Amino acid sequence: MQLPPHTPIENPDRVINFMVRTVWGLTDPVRFYQLMDEARALCSPATYLGDNMFLWGRSNSPFEDPRFVAAWESNVQNDADRAIAWRRYILACAAYHCAQLEGDFVECGVYRGTSIKTIVDYFGKENFDKTFWGYDTYDYNPVEHHAFAGQQDGLFNEILQRFDGYDCVRLVKGLLPQSLENNSPEKIALLHIDLNSAEFEIAVLDALFDRVVPGGMIVLDDYEWGGQYREQKMAEDAWFDQRKYRVFPLPTGQGLVLKR
Predict the structure, then answer these.
(1) Who's near 5: CB < 8 A, 6+ residues apart?
(2) Which has the higher per-residue pLDDT, 140 or 16?
(3) Residues 121 and 172 in one domain
(4) Is position 234 within any domain?
(5) Measured between alpha carbons, how far is residue 246 from residues 30, 113, 119, 208, 237 in Å?
(6) Model-level pTM greater than 0.90?
(7) Label partner for 33 (CA 20 to 30 A): which of 10, 101, 120, 227?
(8) Is position 72 within any domain?
(9) How many domains does the chain contain in total?
């Protein structure tokens, strides 16, 4: 597969600031952003505010990669999509690595398919020569209190239309892990899990982890988030500990595992 080209940085003094007024868990959003505006003025430039992250003095690498920026911006559908740019770039970088391995790509928890489509567009759909499997219930959410906007009858057909012409993408509708039976790849290079449930995520790991090839990557979307997601971290830490692995906790809220 032809890889996205590296674009050298021509100006070492370039400063990129990024802010999206979309974060979660606030009791007073108006006051919060007033304080953040004040904090940004007190910090060195090159700030990132979004997805519950406030950073400063960073290169903001997602926005230094023009190929990624084009893929990301063309697939943004709401403020949340824009806020999680760094999470999307983690996936794009993981995909760059895993594209050079044998095995397919798999995402469990697709929703509107933005992660999958951003990755494929990053490479170029005509150039993407792996199968990218996307598993979800689509039209409903089996996790209590986690239904997303538009998650109702007809969503699956809408997402199928969104991927019209993307022959490399195979969307599978059904409840995990049952929907994997006789309908999943034998070798996996990249496994992205975003199911918002410890029970479902452990079931998927039970079914798919051994199929991840050496050098392959597993990205756990909710691993490092607190609150109601903390049960996922607890369950996954114990699961990986039994296999002598440690999850890399990322400030984006994701967890990363490199298969050996």
Answers:
(1) 67
(2) 16
(3) yes
(4) yes
(5) 39, 28, 26, 18, 7
(6) yes
(7) 227
(8) no
(9) 2
